[in-house]
Specification:
Radius of gyration: 21 Å
CATH class of the largest domain: Alpha Beta
Strand order of the largest sheet: 2-1-7-8-9
Largest sheet: 5 strands, parallel
CATH topology of the largest domain: Rossmann fold
Number of domains: 3
Number of strands: 11
Order of helices and strands: HEHHEHHEEHEHEHEHEHEHEEHHH
Bound molecules: iron/sulfur cluster
Oligomer: single chain
Length: 359
């Protein structure tokens, strides 16, 4: 147990690992669990959880990093927008490093043209300060960021801003989990469900999916507790959603945030990078707010693009393989020179493996 000193309560860790081991002994096959949140991916890597659980248990990283699942065609469309003289792009930082299928990135533009913001609301300020520019915010994220982006669009409406739009690639998690659970190639026995997303959606949002999951927090002990609860379900043959993060996640979630999101966005089919189109997992901007929809205003077309040659992100995000199975991992594809999106964000599976587990 080489990383055990880093845990808040090593004795409790030992007990949990023992319980996991005991329950696994009663299961006659290997078990695959998937974490669906980039923060979980980082925490598992940093704390060395993979090295202290039995080999029979595989922990796989799912599509929980928004940058990783944003399609190459969206990156190309954003680059095309940035090339327009009148457009000023605003975006979260990781997006400028994500390559499209031909290796082009938003990072090649000067910072006056592609501005990194820490909150979508900063894009409103930039639009107010630059009335001669069309300010486009790249709306990329899950239920954790979508309500803030929705609120930003409402602020633009209230301020009668005519030079602010959002190019929405926002996505929702629950139906994507159902698609993964139903994918015979993935072979997922249960999900460590995302803590942040669940704070917004609530535990009940997973109830009708028929998936096995445990909502977990982000401390190593939270994750080990979630793993143990999942193994216990598998041993008993139970398929249900439990909550191991009740200090932050309620049954109903944050209904105010859900309302804002629902007011501005509608559910649409959307492509996930490496996974293809998953029905009813995208958040498109409602017609009522179409003046603030960059896709409509600039008649954006998303080219269909293949993944960079050799990149296995799509399979990694489905739990079919792990980062070290990719022949480019750690040699041609590095955090400073990412070839695929999973190596870009610190929450990406390849990046987390490179940082914490490559040896
Ligand atoms: S190591 Fe790089 S090329 Fe390979 S799957 Fe990960 S991101 Fe793609």
């Amino acid at each position: 147990m080489k990383f055990i000193d880093e845990y808040a309560d090593p004795e409790l860790v030992k007990k949990l690992v023992h319980l996991i081991q005991k329950d696994l002994e009663d299961i006659s096959r290997p078990v695959n669990l998937m974490e669906v949140c980039g923060t979980h991916t980082m925490s598992i890597g940093r704390s060395g959880i993979r090295s202290i659980v039995p080999d029979k248990l595989k922990l796989l990283s799912g599509p929980g990093c928004p940058v990783c699942v944003t399609p190459s065609g969206y990156i190309s469309a954003s680059i095309e927008l940035a090339e327009r003289k009148e457009v000023l792009i605003t975006t979260f930082g990781d997006m400028v490093r994500v390559p499209n299928s031909s290796g082009d990135t938003l990072g090649r533009f000067p910072k006056e043209k592609v501005r990194i913001v820490y909150s979508p609301l900063e894009a409103i300020t930039i639009a107010m300060e630059n009335p001669d520019k069309e300010v486009v915010f790249l709306g990329v994220g899950f239920e954790t960021t979508a309500p803030v982006i929705a609120q930003t669009i409402k602020v633009a409406v209230e301020n009668k801003l005519s030079n602010f739009t959002c190019l929405s690639a926002n996505k929702i998690i629950p139906p994507a989990l159902k698609a993964l659970a139903d994918n015979p190639l993935s072979k997922i026995d249960g999900f460590i469900l995302p803590g942040h997303v669940s704070i917004i959606l609530g535990k009940d949002s997973y109830a009708d999916l028929g998936i096995r999951g445990v909502v977990s927090g982000f401390e190593p002990l939270d994750i080990l507790t979630g793993i143990h609860m999942l193994i216990r379900q598998i041993r008993k043959g139970v398929v249900e959603v439990e909550n191991a993060y009740s200090r932050a996640v309620t049954d109903k979630g944050n209904e105010l945030m859900q309302k804002v999101m629902d007011e501005v966005f509608e559910i649409v089919d959307t492509p996930w990078r490496g996974l293809g189109v998953i029905p009813a997992t995208g958040l498109g901007i409602r017609k009522k707010y179409s003046d603030y929809d960059a896709e409509k205003k600039f008649k954006v077309k998303y080219p269909e693009e293949n993944e960079p040659a050799g990149c296995r992100c799509g399979e990694i995000l489905q739990g079919i393989c792990i980062p070290t199975d990719c022949p480019l991992f750690g040699n041609k594809c590095l955090p400073d020179n990412p070839i695929g999106p999973c190596m870009v964000s610190s929450e990406g599976a390849c990046s987390a493996y490179y940082k914490y587990e490559r040896n």
